[in-house]
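Quick check before the chapter quiz. The format below is the same one you will see on the exam, so make sure you can read both the input and the output lines.
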Amino acid sequence: MTVLLLAVAILGVSASGPLMAATTAPALAIAFWRNAVATVLLAPTALTRGRRELAGQSRRRWLLVAFSGVMLAAHFATWISSLKLTSVAAAIALVSMQVLWVVVIDIVRGVRPGIVVALGCALAVAGVFVITGVDLSLSREALTGDALALAGGLFAALYVVAGSRARETLGTTTYTFLVYGVCAVTLLAVCFMGGVPLGGFAARDWALIAAVTVCAQFLGHSIINHLLAVMTPVVISLALLLEVPVAAMLAAIFLGEALPWATYGGLALILAGLAVVTLARGRRQPAETLVGD
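Here is the expected output.
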């Protein structure tokens, strides 16, 4: 049953990229609705069972939650935008570099990564250069999408680092409700200031947004949160790397995406590098849960 649930979670997060790439609604609108709907659905439980947690938070904890939510909003805005410009496979692989961004943040904080982690980082970065080199030869638009996906990984890393501190005094449901709520409010403000429409979409787009919410937010990450109680974070993080090839396969089947062979070589290098980094970090400390999309 555990393996089955993990397979469902991987399929859920893998489907989100192709689904959002197929949606003609603006990227910011997609990001807003998936977080707003999740916030509303989590509210009854969080506001009843989590009342004591909410009342006992310090000002510093609230600032951490707010920062996490804003970083999550930036992550969704940049990553979903990248799906409109570059291939689904490249966008997912590059945003998965969040593990490497966490290593960079640790270095800034004075934590040495170790030789094995450095080797894994070098492999993944080499894969990035391969993919971006191919995309540069294809179009500047694809290269812009690659840059947005990398930025999405950075924002996801900041979200994870800040969230890990905020979670010290908050349960999963309460924290998820708060951070999705801050994320939705942030995206709503950005959409309002930028004149991004939040309605008037075709029925097909609404159906795709609903499918993203169900697949990624609930079938994907809700199951992953449950599995963290029975599986190690390292195993889950490694399993989530399967999102890259599975999403690429789904995009090829349903969107007709055909990638240059060199791109697949870059994807392989990134996956190998991230696997090395995740395993090495898992031996020293619990691995940060990847932000799936």
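If your answer matched, good. The mean pLDDT is 84.
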